[in-house]
Design a protein that fits this description.
19 strands; mainly beta; 7-stranded mixed β-sheet; 260 residues; single chain
Length: 260
């Protein structure tokens, strides 16, 4: 189960260059970072937030590609992470986390990892060239306001996924990284936070936003739902995600993984 210490608010913005994917790949799900009502300066209409579990589990969500009867292949998935808190900012994602993993699963199912990379501490090196991490900044500014502390937002692109899904059906997803130990705090590790937003206040497309997030344990097993307004926030929220995919005819193509 999640508890209130696993959540906190935070801010966001900006898109990066699309990584190399299939020639016919398109932005099939656009629930990107909010463009309006950012941070505490926006008061009660703040649109951006972050959600974290702990090293025993994580918060995920779902998305839908295409229409019933269609077959699609997911080429890449983009999400955003917001590490840190007052007095501790991460210059790199690897400063706070040992690894990063993308989990996928069909609607109502548990999740399985489909992409993972080890993060070299104090370096920008990843063990998987199909995962790319960059800082989502605009004009060099830090974008996330966590109770007065400006934190960087890191964009994570999982590329060359080649995962087949059914059109019109929900696909569950989650991104999670194991936290490194916090210096001076025996037994505690850094919490992984995924960026989220309120669809109505975001000022940007929020495909499939329904105000219901999903909770998973450390093995990817479903552990319930999360509605932001029932926890620490005053409005609905979804996890921000962009999915690049291409449609295929007939049966699922060969040599692809399946989230179904």
């Amino acid at each position: 189960m999640l508890n209130k210490t696993r959540f906190s608010t935070v801010a966001s913005l900006l898109l990066c260059v699309l990584p190399a994917v299939a020639a016919d790949s398109a932005l099939a799900v656009d629930r990107g970072l909010p463009q309006s009502n950012l941070n505490n300066a926006s008061g009660s209409v703040r649109s951006n937030v972050r959600w974290g579990g702990d090293n025993q589990g994580f918060v995920g969500d779902d998305f839908t590609i295409g229409a019933p009867g269609e077959r699609w292949v997911i080429d890449s998935i983009r999400t955003w992470a917001v590490p840190g808190y007052s007095g501790a900012k991460a210059a790199r994602l690897s400063d706070f986390y040992q690894d990063v993993r993308l989990y996928l699963g069909a609607s109502s199912n548990d999740l399985t990892p489909v992409a993972a990379a080890q993060l070299a501490e104090g370096a920008d090196e990843l063990s998987n060239p199909n995962i790319r991490i960059s800082e989502a900044t605009r004009d060099g500014a830090l974008l996330y306001d966590d109770f007065g502390t400006a934190l960087p937002i890191f964009q994570i692109d999982f590329t060359n996924l080649n995962v087949a899904v059914r059109g019109g059906s929900k696909t569950r997803f989650g991104v999670w990284g194991m936290g490194r130990p916090i210096s001076g705090q025996d037994g505690k590790a850094h919490t992984w936070y995924n960026h989220g937003s309120n669809a109505a206040l975001s000022g940007a497309r929020q495909d499939g936003a329904d105000g219901v997030m999903l909770i998973f344990d450390g093995a990817g097993r479903a552990d319930g739902t999360l509605r932001a307004q029932d926890r620490d926030w005053d409005k609905p929220s979804d996890i921000n995600v962009q999915v690049f995919a291409h449609r295929v005819g007939g049966q699922a193509p060969g040599h692809v993984k399946s989230a179904q």
